[in-house]
Specification:
The complex is a heterodimer of chains A (about 375) and B (about 230). Chain A is α+β, with helices and mostly antiparallel strands. Chain A has two domains: about 180 residues, no CATH class; about 190 residues, no CATH class. Helix content of chain A is about 60%, strand content about 20%. Chain A has 13 helices and ten strands. Chain B has a single domain, classed as Rossmann fold. Chain B has seven helices and ten strands. In chain B, the strands form two sheets. In chain B, strands 6-7-8-3-9-10 form a six-stranded mixed β-sheet, sandwiched between helices. In chain B, a hairpin with a 2-residue loop joins β4 and β5. Chain B is globular and about 45 Å long. In chain B, about 50% of the residues are buried. The chains are: A alpha+beta (about 375), B alpha/beta (about 230). The interface between A and B is medium-sized, with 29 and 33 residues. The complex binds adenosine-5'-diphosphate (ADP) and magnesium ion. The site of magnesium ion has 2 residues of chain B, from α1. The site of adenosine-5'-diphosphate has 11 residues of chain B, from β2 and α1.
Chain lengths: ~375, ~230
């Protein structure tokens, strides 16, 4: 249609040939679009970023035995309910009462690597993390009361179930023994300091009973809603296991998250308002500056609606350019913030580009409404009388 | 029926009678010039005839329609369909080229047609300036673009308010020649001017003074011939 081509030719000419005039408007739209698309990026990336941050505070889901204990096969089945990409760590624990220099102590068998992944906040006060068979990581309180230090060799003993009666009747029980080398002292601020940690294999050797798990600590990078779904899945599909959330961790993560998102939302609204004011001001100036042109257009036959259409077309085109620039700069802005605040990169969301452009077209159009309305009030006679 | 008829038209600003009981008839195809000192009401009259302003009192019949009673929306339509305007200042849209400025009138009237717009520019001798912006044209050339724009939609009546006021002799001649051509094609012309030479070539001269029609002179020697050049 020929008329539409002339329309497009006119509004592009107005923007292109009046570049220096339009650059201010374009700049304010582009800056608004940049901040908006950047903040939206951050808004949607914050849960992931914050989740990763929160994974430092330990497990947010645990699996316990529905009845007594469960096996590693049960644990593997339970783990399947959580997408592997979201599973930061799943540490199995088995607790047994053993004796250290004839004193009862709780020994925990675990998978050292998983334990470290699930509980990154555990601090090795001295020495290093448990790695191999024959090594022992002892809680700080244990180290204190038995005056043990890194590098000491120590013998642990265990009375098997079958020998317990004999022990109770004060006969000599036939205990199991195993010697360990202390590789590290553990500080957590919790009851873990009263335990000694060894590999699952060593505990099985010491007790003579294998494939028994009391507890699995899971660290999952997901929202608390999702976590709840996973736990439900596990409870339905693995009857021998009971999965539950660690409320202390998930609740605080949710609170921090919602506060942060509310803040980002607030800033977004403020920036939106500022952008609209800025665009409205610029468009008011543009209309004032072009009163003569508007009068002329009316004098040669433009109706009010065609004046509105032309200015709206211009401001929407401006919104399109501003939005395009803004969506690119917004990504740069968001990734800079992400790197500085969370020290990780942000994922690029292709959908955000058209959304930013459409929103900036709408915002520009809306904020131009009032100024453009005033354009229709220009009286062609007055303008042409030679002001 | 006359193409244009003013019946006891007044335009009153407070105490001031910019037009004071003006009655006038203009026939189809007539060429009328309007003279008068500054402030005598010439532009006021042109604005009313051009459907850009309404009289305070009186009737203005254009093609039998009383435009003093029409809504401003209808006035826009009438202006677009029947009137071609030429102003003293060369009013062009400064970011559109010469041909685009002419096409603008087509755009509001019906459908833009670049070929036809270029032909109109050729008529005013500006075929080679079609792609120039107003700032790249001389005053005379800009005024000729305005003439091309005024005639592009074949208006019934062309209103020119001091069209040669800001032009040098040579461009004034070109514009007056264009009026001759338009007149020969049957276009009705009303030309406000200070310049007696421009006024004298019309069929009829009217003189306004303090908002009243003070004098009317019929040009006995009107030949309809182009005076300055013979084409
Ligand atoms: N909008 C207006 N408000 C008040 N006075 C006006 C207005 N327009 C014109 N006038 C007055 O009307 C008179 C006629 O003006 P105008 O038609 O422009 O004269 P001309 O074109 O003959 O020089 C002048 O005195 C002018 O000051
Ligand atoms: Mg005047």
């Amino acid at each position: 249609m020929k008329k539409r081509r002339m329309f497009i030719r006119m509004i592009t000419a107005s923007l292109m040939r009046r570049r220096s005039r339009m650059i201010v408007a374009l700049l304010s739209i582009a800056i608004g679009a940049t901040i908006l698309s950047g903040l939206v990026s951050i808004y949607y990336d914050v849960p992931r970023q914050l989740g990763a941050e929160f994974r430092n505070y330990g497990a947010n889901m645990i699996m316990t035995a529905a009845d007594g204990s469960f096996t590693s096969a049960d644990m593997e089945k339970g783990k399947k309910a959580v997408p592997s990409a979201e599973l930061v760590g799943a540490a199995p624990y088995r607790y047994e009462n053993i004796r250290l220099r004839e004193n009862p102590v709780v020994a925990a068998g675990t998978d050292p690597e998983q334990a470290r992944a699930a509980s990154p906040y555990w601090l090795i006060d001295d020495g290093e993390w448990l790695q191999n068979s024959g090594e022992l990581l002892i809680g700080a309180k244990v180290a204190d009361s038995f005056r043990l230090k890194v590098g000491d060799d120590i013998e642990l003993s265990f009375t098997p179930e079958a020998e317990r009666e004999a022990a109770a009747e004060n006969k000599t029980a036939d205990d199991n023994y195993k010697t360990f080398r202390i590789v590290g002292i553990l500080k957590t601020g919790g009851t873990e300091e009263e335990y000694v940690y060894m590999t699952m294999g060593d505990l099985e050797e010491l007790t003579g009973v294998s494939d028994k798990i009391d507890l699995v600590e899971l660290s999952v990078s997901a929202s608390s809603d999702k976590l709840g779904e996973y736990a439900e899945d596990i409870n339905l599909s693995v009857p021998s296991v009971h999965a539950s959330l660690v409320k202390r961790v998930t609740a605080s993560e949710t609170t921090v998250l919602s506060k942060l998102q509310a803040l980002v939302l607030l800033v977004t609204v403020v920036v939106l308002a500022l952008t609209m004011i800025c665009v409205a001001t610029t468009m008011t100036a543009v209309v004032a500056e072009r009163r003569r042109e508007i009068g002329l257009r009316k004098a040669i036959g433009a109706s009010n609606s065609s004046i509105i259409k032309e200015f709206m077309g211009e401001s929407m085109l401006l919104g399109f350019f501003g939005g395009t620039v803004g969506s690119v700069l917004g990504y740069v802005f968001a990734s800079q913030v992400s790197i500085r605040v969370f020290s990780s990169s942000i994922s690029f969301r292709p959908l955000l580009v058209p959304i930013t452009i459409i929103i900036s077209i709408i915002v520009t159009g809306l904020s131009s409404l009032m100024p453009i309305r005033s354009a229709t009030e220009v009286d062609p006679a007055l303008v042409l009388k030679g002001e | 029926m006359s193409l244009l008829e003013l019946k006891n038209v007044y335009k009153i600003y407070g105490e001031l009678h910019a037009l004071d009981d003006v009655s006038l008839k203009v026939e189809k195809g007539e060429w009328v010039s309007i003279m008068g000192p500054s402030g005598s009401g010439k532009s006021t009259m042109m604005n009313i005839i051009g459907c850009m302003d309404k009289p305070s009192k009186g009737e203005v019949l254009l093609d039998g329609v009383d435009i003093s009673k029409e809504s401003s929306k209808n006035l826009t339509t009438i202006r677009r369909d029947k009137i071609g305007l030429i102003f003293q200042q060369f009013h062009l849209v400064n970011y559109l080229t010469a041909v685009e400025n002419v096409m603008l009138a087509q755009y509001y009237h019906s459908i833009p047609d670049e070929k036809e717009a270029l032909e109109a520019l050729e008529r005013v001798g500006l075929a080679d300036r079609a792609k120039h912006l107003p700032s790249q044209l001389s005053g005379g050339e800009q005024q000729r673009v305005c003439v091309a724009r005024a005639l592009i939609n074949y208006p019934e009546i062309i209103l020119a308010d001091e069209p040669t006021g800001n032009l040098d002799e040579a461009n004034e001649e070109i514009v007056v020649d264009l009026f001759h051509k338009l007149h020969n094609e049957g276009t009705t012309l009303i030309v406000v001017t200070h310049d007696p030479e421009v006024a004298e070539v019309a069929q009829r001269r009217l003189v306004l003074r303090n908002g009243k029609l003070a004098k009317e002179v019929i040009n006995e020697n009107f030949t309809g011939k182009i005076r300055f050049t013979d084409q």
